[in-house]
Amino acid sequence: MHKKKIAFLSTVLAVGTALAGCGGGGNAGQQPSGDAGNASGGGEAGGKIVIASVGPLSGSASDYGETAKSGAEYAVNLKKEEFKKLGFDLQLLAQDDQADPKQAVSVAEMVITNPDVLAVVGHPTTGASITASVKYEQESLAMVSPSATGSNLTEEGKKIVHRICARDDQQGSKAAIFAKNQLGVKTAYVLHDKQAYGQGLADEVKKQFEADGVQVVGFEGVTAGEKDYSAVVNQIVAANPDMIYFGGYYAEAGIIVKQAREKGFKGTFMGGDGLDSADMLKIAGDAANNVVFTSTVGDIGATEEGKKWITDYEAATGKKVGIFTSFGYDAANVTLNGILEAIKANGGKKPSREQVLEAIHKTKDFQGQFVKVSFNDKGDNEFAQVFAYKYENGQKVFIGEAK
Fold first, then answer.
1. Of the candidates 9, 112, 293, 328, which lies 20 to 30 Å from 165 by C-alpha distance?
2. Which domains does the chain have, with CATH numbers?
3. Is the pLDDT of residue 1 over 80?
């Protein structure tokens, strides 16, 4: 997605308008007020504490942002009473970055000017996370992403960056190993969308395929947002690989697999968690059958405890659990735990952003609802895993851990 450059005032107005239409209970979508000039917070007994949830709430990746935001919002609502007893008014501020790196910078600039914002849950996508993290780093504002998998996100040395999910070098390598060992793939054509997440994932898959002796018969980038990929599909069909691997999102993947099937491709189509969306089924139709994809999120309904959580969440919110609802929830709880630890260390007073960052960065063996979290020095989760799924008869079917 590419947006034209606009003036900062226009950006503010546009984001404000978007927020007005994104309310979903609580205080999400509203701009909490704060005293200007106190960006680091700290020192007050009681007061307002705001968590920013930032992600794509509109555009082709909105499924990721909306589900992550809903999970984070649910976590915040469940913690409001605990914070109230400590004298704090806990709020969630939802912002739309449209999965656009440029828009993410504008949103980050807005977020850091609100002194009550002590941490960010987000961003869900890698490109937006990388550009926004530059701004957060300047203000020591911690971010905890539920789903940004790009390896270089945590390789740039920014202390504020954290994520609870696996990295692309984990997801990509495990996907390639799974394809060879479990699917019997001997030849593959690797595609990507030329964006940070998609190309990074494809690079890792290609690297692992080559290390394992799987022949990569083609490696090519396509332009996201197009509606016809027949030129590259013709090349793939002519090469007749066992597998097409696509690094990118469902909007393009759905078109590519549909056109490939129409042109006679009989092999396996595989991708990463960018293919995990109900919209993939709508776009690809019957061609989505047997499409395989990896995800950093496991089968959250596999246990009785997980089933109860799903029932409670849906009853409380009126929404169905989506791709990143569970990780939005756990990322928010990691964040809230860090803030509570910072409050405790600050003698019960409102902590500064620096104090919150320090507490979040020190997170060890935190047991979330669906994932255990220990951050290493880079901000990666030492307990992150990768799982495999497939589409079958219009349903997402859990296969197991990818290995």
1. 112
2. 8-166+306-370 (3.40.50.2300), 168-295+387-401 (3.40.50.2300)
3. no
